[in-house]
Specification:
Endonuclease III, domain 1, hydrolase, Nucleoside Triphosphate Pyrophosphohydrolase, single chain, alpha+beta, three-stranded antiparallel β-sheet, about 350 residues, binds iron/sulfur cluster
């Protein structure tokens, strides 16, 4: 007896349980499938249907879409979100009219030249509208394949993605490609769902590795949390006896670029050296004041703040540099402070 293949099981299931009445499954032209595929990215079928029908009434062909204004196209998208999808669709329709004589491309490479169409979407359009043999790898298919083959690793990683494309290609049948593509989408959307997959009803459960291991929800692996380094710093809250605080302007580029902050150092020793260099006297107070933590996109900043109080009227020297200012009256100050520094200065202002 010949072994039933993955695709045969999926197609058999599709014949009795697949979805066949969705609006884009009627009159399946490449244009109609394309619009549906773009709308279905990030959006559920039930939400898409009324939008799709209205869109198709207004723009039944790629030419009508290309001739529409961007405002009009976007108004048809209002409520669906991710508006770059609509802008790309509109832009691509103009390209189809200009470079492809108004005909949707019919090869994978040409299809992928259109804005907003990646390999999976291009494969889906050509498979569903022309029964061409292409694999797809949307979120539903990734979920099914990672579970069925117990593929470890986050699918966003290129090595994992490569492996998944190989598996997707491997299972694609020579015949009934359109049905198979639709079946894989349906299987992922209705049975192999993100939480609580209905494995008992699934045509693949006999050979599904995750089902056998009892852990389908472990797949696909989640995106690893980004580990970003921590930088230590020391900030000086130098206060003068007249109540003003020394602030320093950050360089125009980089972290907090162009904003006003407190003099910042790598460590306490460098901070003390700087004080000695610019203020010949010994501070009457040098004490720990507060710790601030702040997360930037590529590092965490842990900064210890020391309060420094000077005991004379000495205010010159450092002021020759444009980057420093004695800050006293917040109402007269027009510069900007980063939020954590503003917080540090606020209690100080109320004390003075
Ligand atoms: S058996 Fe369960 S986990 Fe495996 S593919 Fe089917 S629904 Fe998904």
């Amino acid at each position: 007896m010949t072994k039933t293949t993955f695709a045969e099981r999926v197609l058999k299931w599709f014949d009795h349980s697949g979805r066949t009445h969705l609006p884009w499954q009627q009159d399946r032209t490449a244009y109609r499938v394309w619009v549906s595929e773009i709308m279905l990215q990030q959006t559920q079928v039930a939400t898409v249907i009324p939008y799709y029908e209205k869109f198709m009434t207004s723009y039944p062909t790629v030419q009508t879409l290309a001739e529409a204004s961007e405002d009009a196209v976007l108004s048809h998208w209002a409520g669906l979100g991710y508006y770059s999808r609509a802008r790309n669709l509109h832009k691509a329709s103009k390209l189809v009219c200009a470079d492809f004589n108004g005909e949707m491309p019919n090869t994978l490479d040409e299809m992928m030249q259109l804005s907003g169409i990646g390999r999976s979407t291009a494969g889906a359009i050509l498979s569903l509208s022309q029964n061409q043999k292409h694999a797809i790898l949307d979120g539903n298919v990734k979920r099914v394949l990672t579970r069925y083959h117990a593929v470890e690793g986050w699918p966003g990683k290129s090595a994992v993605l490569k492996q998944l494309w190989q598996l997707a290609e491997h299972h694609v049948p020579d015949k009934r490609n359109a049905d198979y593509t639709q079946a894989m989408m349906d299987l992922g959307a209705t049975l192999c769902t993100r939480s609580k997959p209905d494995c008992e009803q699934c045509p693949l459960h006999q050979n599904c590795q995750a089902y056998a291991d009892g852990n389908p929800s472990n797949y696909p692996s989640k995106k690893p949390k980004k580990t970003i380094p921590t930088k230590e710093a020391v900030l000086l809250l130098v206060t003068h006896e007249d109540g003003s605080t020394l602030i320093e302007k950050r360089p125009p580029t980089g972290i907090w670029g162009g904003l006003w902050s407190l003099p910042q150092f790598e460590d306490e020793e460098k901070a003390r050296n700087w004080l000695r260099q610019h203020f010949s006297e010994t501070p009457i107070v040098f004490e720990h004041y507060a710790k601030i933590t702040h997360t930037f996109s590529h590092f965490h900043l842990h900064a210890e703040t020391y309060k420094v109080q000077l005991n004379t009227n000495y205010k010159t020297g450092i002021m020759e540099a444009d980057a420093y200012l004695w800050y006293n009256n917040p109402h007269e100050f027009t510069g900007g402070f980063p939020a954590p520094i503003k917080k540090l200065l606020a209690p100080e202002r109320t004390l003075l």
